[in-house]
Design a protein that fits this description.
178 residues; binds coenzyme A
Length: 178
């Protein structure tokens, strides 16, 4: 079983090891982080999570069975009045992808957002070539609501961005605590 735990300073090195190159960094985190990813940049984001009331949450995904951190996820632009937030920086340890952890992690973050924070709407952005991520998001009920053509350029590539949305009532929870 996985649980969400707050990201802290001691989680920086592991997360940096999971980001192999410049291309991956851009597709995973956007242009806010510059290559090479370092602790200073991560701690700048971490500082946002310490403001109260917070509109930014950073979590590690912790597998209680093997007692190891297996992933990372963030909830950003949390707006309690509008009951909305944006999910970002979803990442599973590269050594253990394709084993269902990503789906479990999406389940947990939706549970946290819809149940703990009482939100109604979640959005996220994903590039159209990221088929495993898209499958993972569709599985819990996210639907594509917009496509931004050539949203990002990397070397000679143009990347199309998909905006996906999930309303609480359409969320296909699969959690023992719901
Ligand atoms: C995206 C990511 C979080 C998914 O995590 P994961 O643990 O590999 O995902 P899962 O094992 O839960 O698989 C999710 C679904 O995707 C499907 N899938 C995997 N690879 C696929 C592919 N190439 N094409 C289509 N579907 C695919 C799986 O079959 C699974 O569906 P199923 O359970 O119905 O079989 C992970 O691959 C990752 O960290 N990627 C790098 C970072 C990243 O790109 N993050 C997203 C930024 S928006």
């Amino acid at each position: 079983m996985i649980e969400l735990q707050p990201f802290t300073e001691i989680d920086c090195d592991r997360l940096i090891r999971w980001v192999p190159d410049r291309r991956f960094l851009l597709q995973w985190a956007g242009p806010e982080y510059k290559w090479p990813l370092d602790t200073k940049q991560l701690l700048k984001t971490y500082a946002k999570t310490k403001i109260h009331p917070s509109s930014h949450y950073m979590f590690i995904a912790y597998d209680t069975g093997i007692e190891q951190s297996i992933g990372h996820i963030e909830l950003m632009n949390v707006n309690i009045e509008k009951k909305s937030a944006h999910i970002g920086r979803v990442l599973i340890d590269p050594a253990i992808r394709g084993r269902g952890y990503g789906s479990q992690l999406m389940n947990k973050i939706c549970e946290y957002a819809f149940i703990n924070l009482k939100l109604s709407t979640l959005t996220l952005s994903v590039f159209d070539f990221n088929q495993s991520a898209i499958a993972c998001y569709q599985k819990i009920g996210f639907k594509i609501i917009e496509t931004k053509i050539a949203f990002r350029e990397f070397e000679n590539e143009k990347w199309n961005l998909l905006i996906m949305k999930l309303e609480k009532q359409a969320c296909k929870f699969n959690s023992p605590s719901i």
